Amino acid sequence: MRNNIEAIRVAFRLGVEKRPPTAAEREALGRYAGFGGLKCILNDANELADAAKWSKSDIELFAPTVELRRLIHDYSKNDKEFAAYMDSLKASVLTAFYTPSPVIDALADTMKERGVKVGSFLEPSAGQGAFVDSFLQHYPGAETLAFEKDLLTGKILSALHPSISAEIKGFEKIDPDFEGYFDVAASNIPFGDFAVADPRYATSKEIAYRQSTKAIHNYFFLKSLDSVHEGGIVAFIASQGVMNAASPFVRMEMMRRADLVGAFRLPNNTFSDNAGTDAGSDLIILQKHSNKKALSADEEFFIQSIVDRETKAPNNKYFAAFPQNVICTEAKVGTDQFGKPAIIYKHEGGADGIASDMRKALHESLKMRLNLDFYNNRSLTPPTPEPPTPESVKRSTENKVEKPKRIADTPLMQQYREMKKKHPDAILLFRVGDFYECMGVDAVKASEILEITLTRRRNGKADNIELAGFPHHALDTYLPKLVRAGQRVAICEQLEDPKQKQKEEYKPTEIITPPPTVEPKPAPAPVEPVKEIETDGGPDFNDNPDPRLFAYNLFGELEPLQKPKRQPRQPKTEEDKPRPTTKIQISDEQVKKFRPLSDKELEFYGSLDWETNPPINGFYETMMSIAHRQLAEMEAERQAMEATRKETITEDGTIIEISKGDFVPKPRVAPEAPKPAERDMSPRPFSEDIQFFHHNGSMVVDKGQVGFLSEVRKNGATFSPLTLKPEQEKRAMLYITLSETYQQLYHFEAETHEEDADMREHLNQYYDEFVVRYGNLNEKQNVKFILMDANGRDALALERGENGHFVKADIFDHPVSFAVDEVTSVDTPMEALTASLNKFGEVNLEYMSSLVDMEQDAMTDSLAGHIYYNPLVSNFEIADRFIAGNVVQKAEEVKEWVNREEERIKNFPGFDGVEPFIDLSKESLKALEEAIPRKITFDELDFNFGERWIPTGIYSAYMSHLYGTEVNIAYSSSMDEYSCDARHKNMKIWEEFCVRGYYRVYDGMSLLKHALHNTVPDIKKSIGKDENGHDIKVPDSEAIQLANTKIDEIRNGFSDWLEAQSPEFKDRLVDLYNSKFNCYVRPHYDGSHQKFPDLNMKLLGDRYHINSVYQSQKDCVWMLIQNGGGICDHQVGTGKTLIMCMAAHEMKRLGLVNKPMIIGMKANVAEIAMTYQTAYPNARILYADAKSFTAANRVNFFNQIKNNDYDCIIMSHDQFGKIPQSPEMQQQILQSELDTVEENLEVVKQQGHDISRGMLKGLLKRKENLTAKLTIIQYQMEQSKDSVVDFKQMGIDHIFVDESQCFKNLMFNTRHDRVAGLGNSEGSQRSLNLLYAIRTIQERTGRDLGATFLSGTTISNSLTELYLLFKYLRPKELERQEIRCFDAWAAIFAKKTTDYEFNVTNSIVAKERFRYFIKVPELAAFYNEITDYRTAQDVGVDRPEKNEILHNIPPTSQQEEFIQKLMEFAKSGDATILGRAPLSDTEEKAKMLIATDYARKMALDMRMIDPNYADDPNNKASHCAKMIAQYYHKYDAQKGTQFVFSDLGTYKPGEWNIYSEIKRKLVEDYGIPPHEIRFIQECKTERSRKAVIQAMNDGDVRVLFGSTSMLGTGVNAQRRAVAVHELECPWRPSDLEQREGRAIRAGNEIAKLYADNKVDVIIYAVEKSLDSYKFNLLHCKATFINQLKSGALGARTIDEGSMDEKNGMNFSEYMAILSGNTDLLDKAKLEKRIAALESERKSFNKGRGDSEFRLQTITHDIANNEAAIERMKADWERYDKVVQRDKDGNPINNLTIDTCNLSDEKNMGIHLQGLVQRTDTHGQYQRVGEVYGFPISIISERVLADGVEKVQNRFVVEGNYKYKYNNGQLAMADTHAACMNFVNALEKIPGIIAQYEERTAKLKADVPILEGIMAKTWGKEDELKQLKSELAALDRKIAAELAPKHENKEDGEEVKREDSPHTVQTIDAPTPDTDNKKSMVAEPTTTYKEREPLSSRIIIGGCGVTPPGSFRAAGPKL
Length: 2014
Fold this sequence. Notes:
Layout: H1 2-17, H2 23-30, H3 62-75, H4 79-93, H5 101-113, E1 120-123, H6 130-138, E2 143-147, H7 151-160, E3 165-167, E4 182-188, H8 199-202, H9 207-212, H10 216-227, E5 228-239, H11 241-244, H12 249-257, E6 258-266, H13 272-275, E7 281-288, H14 297-303, E8 305-307, E9 314-316, H15 317-321, E10 330-335, E11 341-346, H16 350-369, H17 372-377, H18 406-409, H19 411-422, E12 426-432, E13 435-439, H20 441-450, E14 455-459, E15 462-471, H21 475-484, E16 488-494, E17 506-512, E18 550-552, E19 558-560, H22 588-592, H23 599-607, H24 618-646, E20 684-685, E21 699-702, E22 705-713, E23 716-721, H25 726-752, H26 757-774, H27 780-786, H28 792-796, E24 799-802, E25 805-808, H29 829-840, H30 845-852, H31 856-862, E26 867-870, E27 875-878, H32 879-882, E28 885-886, H33 887-904, H34 915-931, H35 952-963, E29 968-972, E30 977-981, H36 987-992, E31 995-996, E32 1001-1002, H37 1004-1013, E33 1020-1025, E34 1031-1035, H38 1037-1059, H39 1063-1077, E35 1080-1081, H40 1097-1104, H41 1111-1123, E36 1126-1130, H42 1136-1149, E37 1156-1160, H43 1165-1175, ...
């Protein structure tokens, strides 16, 4: 450690002084050994106090660690650099283990002795350079490239070795140009299973490459093998994990690409001396050999790992076979550093002994297995003549390595030049993958002749090289053209593994020369043809495993040389062209069926061809094929005869040469034409590697055959060949190449975000050729064929239809998975600012000036107020970013910077240059200070006990005060879990804050934990036994109520305790809160500067009467552009649709997004698309209609999204839900959860007893669940090979979610599972899909948002929905506020209430609810930071006002009767009363929800319950029809329209429903034409829906019925609307607003002109029903939600009320409302409160009685103990006076025994031992002697020993009490000890007295606590008396109201509230049977009842205890 620190100090000093090291400094640097294994440096070591956290074994390293940190901090330029150094240091702890130099020298020495010459050396993990030192000593001139990732070690490496090329970065960053460059790579590579970020390896199709990136040591092997040349050596010391790992893939890949020279297992103490750590390691030496034929036995052993059955220790079979390669002197079984079984090897000789044994083993292995010839020649094949001289590398310094030029040194270019040198006059066609490429001059020639594209590619340091190429299957088309052009052509086929793209070997070369104009020279004698081509011995991985020579016939067909064909006898002319390939090929069997054609027929049909004179039908095509075949056979016979005569091979003057090694043309005799080999058509294993686009059913080519794949797995598939005609086969091959090229292109660009122009060029070539030959992909003759392929739909999407024609998809022109366009010029500085933010993420004045051609000073002046200079980042920042966020902290830092700089230049004589920036910073500071929010004071804050941001130390202090003992509280943020501990518990914990349940006791610590989490224990009790004898458990309501009371006492006392703290304490707490929650500022977004250049206002005006853009719309668009998303919370009818369209288009135009998507409700998504097209008529929009998502079209639609660059994609919510989400994203989110759980489990194990078993069990269960989900997803990923495009692949980078409230049902985790109103915590799959999609975008951008939510009702029902909004959009910001789950959010912003009420069985039931929300301004600020909230008033929308009318309807006689049944059902639960079957167990739990639902239906119409009920002229339908008719006739001249809403009884053909009933009444009773009344449910298509809406606006439809979901959103039919009828009240405030917004919106012309600009909203309420009550509650809740959004609420707390959609109404309210008298509801509440208080008083009195009994018991025990103490003291005084002691103070034995005359100790001891064995006193005390006047007695007791009863004797010394020593038993082996037993018993008296005094003191300490409990009085006695008085008064009032009334209330009385923002009327309909009956309304006529004051909350509390069992102090037991 000390050496490391000194080396780091020297390295830093050298870096500052910029000089080489001295000899002494080099020595100091050389002693650096890294920090591998020293995990203690990861501990905190910032100050002395941190030493307490260190373990004893590491404490000696504490001081050096502090010194190390200070040293690094002092030399760091800033905190960022310091953090980088520390991160690097910590990373090296787990990976860096430095090798002793003797071990390295042994390796280098042995290699040199064996003749290995090293010209270039690679050290991929250099450390301080030990390997570099050793190899440079042995090879002084070697070029050396060293990598070291650790910053500190890299500094030391650079200082020690200035002459080498040292790269301080990871080995994965090595330049690709170095592949195949180095001779030797040697290193001690990093240890550990750490992933490596190498995208090329990580995305490789090879499993070994992908796996290597997950373990750093495996990666180094494969990467280094890529970096050395063929025959090069890789020698690595690596973790034993390389050879011991169970997975063989990496070792297989090593052996596949290299020869094993040797492997040596090093002892565990190899690194002990140098690095101070033990670690198992191996030395593995490989020799690169890419193309191997087979594995040796050694290599087979190397691949196999084994596990010992007994020891379970892993090993490698190689070491079992070669034990001499295990370097050790001792081996034993132990455990590795991870605690797993392992064999531990030791070597007694230390580093020198290890090196010595290593040399011997190395010498033998290198001698046997190192191929020096291979190493030196770098190739297995003989060298070619005149090899090209490689370009020399200039060395700037001694051992520096310069980046090699790719054109000079890459194997591909080297082989190309070698071949080109042999054939300088030929065009060289070089096979590269699936293409033939020409390079350089050849490419220029080929592009001109063949008319193919010429491209250029950069090559190393060369500027570029020309490239031209074509697909390999097109060779038969392009080769004849080159030959006819007079060019000589050399074809180089490849023999390589396609996986090794950089190491391609090219062997056979085919030369085709044009026909010579002179006779060819006689050829040498014929030689038997060589049938096999010699290769370098490597395995062949190509499509063509048998490379052959080919010749081209007159038809342009490539044919093997071994199969010469006779040419037809036709006169040749220069104009003759090679015949194209026939469309139909006839087999031998088919030919035999035809007669030979006559000469005339041959002449006629043989003259036809498929290009210039194609056949007119199938007959002609068949005859042409036969003719050409016969002509070819005739020509083949003729040529065979001529060849036999000439004894050479000449075909039409074409000479064929083979080039391999030395090129010597050798003529060959043509053999007889063999019969065509029959193809193997049986299924077989697919010979190629499985690619990501291979699925079951994929069409592929395998060994020249077309077929399909099945049983596709990771490592293989089954190939089933297809029987195809030749032309079909060619079409299939071309299609397959086209499809696979597309898949590879899209995948590469989507993964890397880099454009691949070459592959795109090839894709275009393939496509163009296919279209020329076979027509468009989507033409009828191709579609059926292409859809045979599993990827066929992807391919068909490569075309899209435009104007009746098929055109190429955008992917042919540019990437579609990411944005490539770059802004080059803009019109205004503001647009330049936006472009700069997009490109750089900051204000870049230089870039901005270039865009608008403006000086920077002028630019900053023009942007004043928009940008501010931030000295903290030394740059300008946009105002929306600078004056935002934590402005308090930012202002302090800016002020500190200004003061520091002013102080620095105060005495500076000249101009420093910083002065202008100081002035700019002062302006910025002023703006910041003006923006700081007002500080919230302590008095304004409402604290919740358990808020996560409050330090746990505060909670600990409070609870220590409350409990009167030290309490420690800890919090785990990842688990969101508090743990509590009290080492010394007292009566407060055991008694005062304790609840004793039937099964367990909940003491104060248990209740404390519940209080912190704001939960209540679920206490159970037994009410008997079931038939199986098990307890019948039910909730113990009394105990739960008592526990809740005590928990409330803990929680409520926290605020009082805080109030009593010092002002300084309060200020610190307030500052902490303000810094967390009240320091943020929402920027003011001013979008007035935006011009929206593409927006077509004329079309918007013509179609939608939109003549200008609202300022609110501009501001909102600007906010969304600046933030990259957010929430557009604009009221219904304020233009959200246009905001969405403008924001999407502007983001696309400015390059902020590439492919935006808009999703909306099905009802209005077509209108969104139409609005977008109207606003931007030139935009390219993809709109998903109903047909797009049918099963047949869905996949094609997804591919259209993927392959095209649309301006916007628009679809419905339901359609979006059908888009598959990325399984990788799902896996990532779940894996992240699993990782967190595993971390929590580790924390649990460390905390041990501080964690409950329940928590541990919960974590384990959660882990199991997540693991199961992950396993399922992993399986689906492996099996779903035929899955379609997922969301991630589509490239969507922003989602606009219209009506986002539809996605509020998102899953969340909570402990509050019994709290009403939270919704379904499991969530919906649709919401989860949206979360996955948004997380996909957020992961791509690395920040929050990524989506825009648009809704006028973002909070539809409860403020708890805010959390889900934040979970979608602000996950990172929530984490900053320590909010990682819902419970953490609720602990800060919500207060839970628990109300207790009586159910129908008169039992008390708890109702928990988050009713109160606190810290509302901060919650609103957090919401508004990303939200633009505007009401219609704010926007200035010209829309009508709302005139709300409450239309009261008396119940009909049928309803009155049914109301009584409902009340009876609610009381008894007997469902038969309602005419239905008895309730099931599940229904019983939801009884009140059922009752509520019946009441809703009853109020609407009795026929909703039973269609057999008769119509009633006074029911709701009749009232509604009458009101509709009145409005219809009133506005008949203007064709006024009306909306009727009901979510119950919607229209269903063939069934009775309320819609049809009202329509019937309107038609029959009021004469309204039926065609003017429509139901929205009748519209089954989007077209019919639009037609109805248009008819509504035109006045042709006058009344439109619908539900909230179908008519409440996306319907712009407001032009003539005059009234909205609410037949029933919905559950949520948002639904009301959506309904009313159909008419109350801009564009309502009739209301404006003819109805005083008002729309009547009529709410129909049946008395004695829930209608009015629900409406009132909804209105109050809507008011609070709007106040929260606007920040207009003065109070900091909101009471949300108690409406519950899921559970219905509570019993008491239900009964009171149905009775028709709200006084009864008040009475029920009072009775419930009184009963709860009386129960609480009873519990309190019981608890006080228990405490009184406990106090009496303790008092009695204290008295007994004090008396015992006095007696024992008397005994001690008596003994102490007479005892004799020796000089050391030990008592002298004064023992006398009555039955023994001997006085010596030995004989007395023997006598006493005899008494023990012989005496039996039968349980009586019997005197045997005395000591110092105290009698000694013996007593016999019966005991069982081994099943036999025995007598056991004990001795006591009798005083006031009987005293014993050693429990009265004598020492039987020592007579002295036996005699001293009695004195020793007396000597114990002081200790016994002390114990009793201590016990008594503890009992006395409990007395004041119990007396305090006794002195407590129940504090709610006055409240109970007051409530009883109120109840009596209410009883009198109810009795008076039931008396007959003689005054009638006038019908139609209008009641207005002055404080109401809109008009409210209450209309009471006349009672049909009597005029003097009072109208029973659910609420008072003022409509909106005042909220219940907080003081009336129902809280039942008290305290009660029961005495603990067996807790009574007994008398002294000595």
